[in-house]
Amino acid sequence: MIRILINQLGYDSEDTKKAILQATNQEEPLSSTFTILEEQTGDVVYQGEIVKSEPVARWNKGDFYVMQFSDFQPGKGKNYGHSYKIKVNTTAGTVESSPFEIYGNVLEYTTLSSVMYYFKSQRVTGEYEQIDRQISFKGPREGIVDMHGGWNDATGDIGVHLTHQTVSGFFNVQQGNLAVFTFYKLIELIEQSSWEYYAIFNRRILDEAAYGANWLMRRRAPSGSFFKAGPLRLPDAYELSEVTRKCGFEYKNTFGEGRKPVPQNERKITDESYEASLRGGGGYAVAALAMAARYPYASQEYSSQEYLNAARESFLYLEENNERYTKDGKWNMMDEYCALEACIELYRTSREFGFMRRARKYAEKIIGHYMPRTDCSGYLSHDETDRPFFSPAEEGAPVMALLHYAEIEKQASRKEEAIATAEKVMRFLLEMTNRVPNPFGYAREYTQDRDGNRKEQFFFPHNSDDAPWWQGENARILSLAAAARLLMDITKDLELAKALQNFADDQVAWVLGLNPYDSCMMINRGRHNPEYFFQYQYDFIGVPCGIVNGITSAIDDDEGIEYVTSPLDNPQIDDNWRWAEEWLPHAIWYLHAMGLKKR
C-alpha cells in the first residue's frame, strides 16, 4: 500500500503545512520532489522536496516520507473555492492525495461551530434529566440532591463528571467543569480576535457556558465543595431506571504505605468521597463560576453576584480543607495549578488583592516543581519528589496556568519568572519530541510507571499507577497544542515561537487525519472515522464532531502502535473504547487550541 497522508480538513494559509507519503510494501518515490496541483485545472502550483524518515520506534507502519509546503500560501485570507492535491511519482505508479483546501482560518470556519453543537447534543435531557433533579447517592451517603444538567461524558457511558480516573491520585482528568471554563475562555479569545465570524459564534458559546454555569451551581455540596462523580449509569446495569442513576463516589484511601494497594473491603467511604478536591474538579469549577460572573446571559439562573459569591466561598473552603478530599491527604501540583486558575479568575472578576496574593503563592509552588535537565530546559515534578508530571489528558494545563498568571501579574520579576519556567518546560517537550525519528511531530512524554521506571515515549504507559486503564490521548496532545500557542504569543524568543507553532499544528493535524492510519478522529468529518463497538455490537453511535480517544501504543508493546477501529482490526478486542470512544476532554482541548490561534 502506498498513500499520501494529509490534514483532511485543510490547512490554514499561514500555518505549518506538511503531508507524509506512507509506503508499506517497499515502494518508494522515483524522484526527490513532489508537486501540488490546483484540483480544478490540474496546474502545478508548487514543487517541494521529499525527505525520508528513519523508522519510528516499533510502529511497523511502513516507510514515511515527509513533504513540507509551509511556504505555499495561496492567497492569505479566505480564498474560498480553491482546492489542491499532492502528486508523487513512485515505483508503484503515480499517487495523488485526496483534495484539500488552503485558506485563512479554514479549521475555525469548518469545525468550531460543529464542535460546539457536539456539546449541545450531549446535554443531559429527557428521562435522565428528570431523574437527576432528585437523585440519591450510590453507597452509604443519604439524601436527595438536584444535579440535573451537564453533558454526557462519553459515547459508552452516560456519566456526568467533574473528574474520574483518580485511583492513584496522579491522573485526575478535568471534565465538565473544564468545559465551562473553556467556553468562557473561548469568549475572551474571540474578543481578542480579528476573525469576523466570531461575533456570530459568540452567542452559541455563551449559551453553552451559561448552561454549564447553572449546572455547576447545582453541583455545589453543602460543605462548599462540589459533587464530582456522577450522576452515572452503573456499569452493571444498562437499562434506564432510578436504581441505576445515582451520584457516585470514589474511595479515598486506594493506596497505603509505600503505595501498596489497599484491599477494596478496607477502603473508606465518607462524605468527602463524593466531593471534589481542587484537583478533583473543584479548582476549575471555581474558576468557571468566577468567569460566569463577568458574562451575564439570558439563560443564567443566578445573578453575577451569586456566581461570584459561590466561587469565592467554595475556593476558600477548598483551600483550607483540600487535604480531606485528596487520595493521600496531601497537595500535589495538580491541586496547585487548579488553585492557580481559580485565583486568577477570582481576581479578574473581584479585583480583590487577596486573590492576587494567593495566585502568587500557587505560581511560586508550581515554579518550585521545576526540575532542570539542561541549562535551559527541564520538566515539572508531580509532587514533593522529582516524579515527572505527565497526564493522559491535560499535560499542557500547568504551563497554561503559569501563562494565565503572567497575564495578570504586574510585578515584572514574577511575570518573567513564570514565563521563563513555561519556556523551559516547553523546550524540554520539544527536545524530547524531536530527539528521535518522528515524522508526524507527535508529542512525546516523560513517564514513570508504577514500578518507578522512567522513560521518554510516544504514548501513555500501560503499566501506569492507574493500570489497567490506558487509552488514546488526543486530549493530552491538544492541551499541549493549546499551551504551545499561548506561549508563542508571549515569548520573545522568535526561534522558540516558530518551533511551538510547528509543534501545535502537528498535534491538530494528527487528530484530523495526518497519522499512520489516515483516520480523521473527529467523527463525521474527513474519512476513515473509527466505529465504536461493544461486544461486537455497534451499540454506541458516534456523535458528529465529537473527538475520539485516538491512537495508542500497541496492546503488548509500549514502543508499538495500535488503533482498533472495527472488530476486523483485532478479533480479540470486543470493546474498542480505548481508541474509538468520544470523550469531552478531547473536544474541550480542541476548542481551546483553536481559539488560541487568534488570527
- Would you state the CATH class of the largest domain? Mainly Alpha
Order of helices and strands: EEEEEEEEHHHHEEHHHHEEHHEEHHEEHH
Distance between the termini: 38 Å
Q: Say what the CATH topology of the largest domain is.
A: Glycosyltransferase
Q: Helix- and strand-based class?
A: alpha+beta
Number of strands: 16
- State the helix count: 14
The biggest beta sheet reads: 8 strands, antiparallel
Mean pLDDT score: 91
Show unreliable segments.
234-243
Radius of gyration: 24 Å
Percent range for β-strand residues: 5-15%
Helical fraction equals: 25-40%
Give the total of domains.
2
Q: Give the CA-based shape.
A: globular
From the coordinates shown, what is the CATH architecture of the largest domain? Alpha/alpha barrel
Give your account of this protein's structure:
This protein is α+β, with helices and mostly antiparallel strands. It folds into 2 domains: 2-101, Immunoglobulin-like (Sandwich); 106-595, Glycosyltransferase. The protein contains 14 helices and 16 strands. Helix 9 (397-408) runs parallel beside helix 11 (474-488). The model is unreliable at 234-243 (pLDDT under 50).
Secondary structure elements and pairings:
Layout: E1 2-5, E2 18-23, E3 33-38, E4 44-52, E5 63-68, E6 83-90, E7 93-96, E8 100-101, H1 106-121, H2 126-132, H3 176-191, H4 198-218, E9 229-233, E10 245-248, H5 278-292, H6 304-321, H7 333-350, H8 353-368, E11 370-372, E12 378-380, H9 397-408, H10 412-434, E13 445-448, E14 454-457, H11 474-488, H12 494-511, E15 552-554, E16 557-562, H13 577-580, H14 584-595
